[in-house]
Amino acid sequence: MDSTLSHLLPEVINIARASGQLILDIYEKGDFEEFTKSDDTPVTSADLAAHKLIMEKLSQLTPDIPILSEEDADIALEQREKWDRYWLVDPLDGTQEFIARSGDFATIIALVENNRPVMGVVYGPVSGVTYYAYEGKGAWKIPDMDESIRISTLKHEEKQPIAIAISRRQDINNITRCMSPEWNYDLVPLGSAALKACLVAEGAVDCYLRLGPTGEWDTAATQCIVQEAGGRILSTELEPLSYNERESLENPNFIVLGDENLPWNKILTCR
């Protein structure tokens, strides 16, 4: 197998778009079932249909590479830690947004090698926008089927408010309590963890602060995209995130940073 699988990017983008279009068809018809998973989070028949499609198409594309999906994540570390390379997938990121009909949801596909995300694709079916990156090859955006545009993070201008992407479903007070009152902030609410991280990658906001449960599938693709755009994703302890190194696949609270030159150790106070 090639040492780099960047040549697979076009087909992975096609798979993400096919999954997103399937979700969009269900979304527009409003004909879906809603269930509650064992961790009390919602899942819909759209999540499960997208999961089935992605599993089938990735298995056809790379039969030798295992797949870890949010909707089929009950795989013990003892088995997973033998994987040098695997696909890490969230078929429908933003299930609550899908149910609430905000339009802020996405399909996420990442390739992880040696515990490090090296490829990331995020597709927002309502906007038609695709974000993608491969390690060492930059981060890119395709606005609604147009030509690819290279993206980069925002260099924060002194004395300007720090623009923070936040969840529509989160208590704003929890966010503001984590930020030093010595700075001014603009809060930008949006759904889908991946789409908020991509806002940082394309320089639309300075950071995205996420407090509360997420899985490794929520951050792997965007970690590659954000890093290739010039930013970082770190825990709120300002430590790197890990992939496939723990029995639990749950992330710590994290922050997506655009400009690392800002004094984040002073701005972020909830460590």
TrEMBL record:
Substrate binds at residues 70, 92-95, 218. CDD domains: CysQ. It comes from the Bacteria. Mg(2+) 1 binds at residues 70, 90, 92, 218. One of its GO terms (molecular function) is magnesium ion binding. It is found in: Cell inner membrane. Gene3D superfamilies: 3.40.190.80, Fructose-1,6-Bisphosphatase, subunit A, domain 1. Coiled coil: none annotated. InterPro entries: CysQ (IPR006240), CysQ/Inositol_MonoPase (IPR050725), Inositol_monophosphatase-like (IPR000760). Keywords: Cell inner membrane, Cell membrane, Hydrolase, Magnesium, Membrane, Metal-binding. One of its GO terms (biological process) is sulfate assimilation. Its main location: membrane. Its cofactor is Mg(2+). It catalyses: adenosine 3',5'-bisphosphate + H2O = AMP + phosphate. It is a peripheral membrane protein. GO terms for cellular component: plasma membrane. Mg(2+) 2 binds at residues 90, 93, 218. Its EC number is 3.1.3.7. Converts adenosine-3',5'-bisphosphate (PAP) to AMP. Belongs to the inositol monophosphatase superfamily. CysQ family. This is 3'(2'),5'-bisphosphate nucleotidase CysQ. It comes from Aliivibrio sifiae. The gene is cysQ.
